[in-house]
Design a protein that fits this description.
241 residues
Length: 241
């Protein structure tokens, strides 16, 4: 498990217009400090569902070797009781590439979350793992992998985008082509030490965990830059480097 930098649990800053009349009169937001339910961890990420529910997910450091992915929902201006999605002693944890969760549109009981888990001994030999809940996060399915190459290589920098009540779009950086003698050409590898190029790939999942519309979006991308995705009238759009 790689931990390049460890941050203490952050305090969230929320915007409010209820407690400072002078700023309200000026049309300025009031910043309030809000404690998170995280005890010792990092990598917090916020998500707002289609119904307006706000979720916070983070990695909790349980001990020197074990991490847990947890989340909480905002309830009446406070974070509710944290719930655990998964935990493991073989996760890939670092400051740049961190887990997340989203809900299916129109049904906050259906949640999908992701984290990164080592596959082999190499520093960057890790997989994307997905798990789903059908009951608002009380129970979670066995994890599965959205990339089906079965190659011990880097897979990460995931963005998930709710599409419909039965579909979530998932995109990630995929290093399957960086391994093997058939990819001998030198590239700018940011120190990862490989031959072939990093690719950008995507798939669509449903609540049962079935994969569809699997595709390579770009055959040559940056090795270690975050992705992002948004929904347009013409379908999903992905931003990457």
């Amino acid at each position: 498990m790689l931990r390049t930098i460890i941050y203490a649990c952050p305090l969230l800053l929320l915007l409010s217009c209820q407690s400072d009349l002078s700023k309200e009169e000026k049309g300025l937001p009031v910043i309030q400090q809000m404690a998170t339910p995280c005890e010792e961890g990092a990598e917090g990420r916020l998500f707002t569902s289609a119904t307006g529910e706000v979720y916070l997910s983070w990695v909790e450091f349980l001990n020197d070797s074990t991490d847990a992915l947890r989340f909480a929902r905002l309830e009446n201006g406070q974070w509710g009781e944290p719930r655990e999605i998964a935990q493991g002693a073989d996760w890939f944890v670092n400051w740049a590439d961190f887990p997340s969760l989203v809900t299916y549109p129109g049904d906050d009981q259906k949640i999908v979350a992701h984290w990164l888990q080592m596959r082999a001994e190499g520093t960057y030999d890790y997989d994307v793992r997905l798990s789903q809940s059908q009951d608002g996060g009380q129970t979670w399915s066995s994890s599965f992998i959205p990339h089906r190459d079965s190659i011990a290589a880097e897979h990460g920098f995931v963005s998930m985008l709710p599409l419909s009540e039965q579909q979530v779009f998932v995109t990630w950086l995929d290093g399957r082509n960086t391994k093997g003698d058939e990819h001998a050409a030198a590239t700018d590898d940011h120190g990862h030490g490989h031959g072939g190029a990093m690719t950008l790939r995507a798939a669509v999942i449903d609540p049962s965990g079935t994969l569809s519309q699997e595709a390579e979006l770009d055959a040559r991308v940056c090795d270690c830059c975050q992705t992002s995705a948004a929904l347009t009238p013409n379908g999903p759009i992905v931003a990457y480097r």
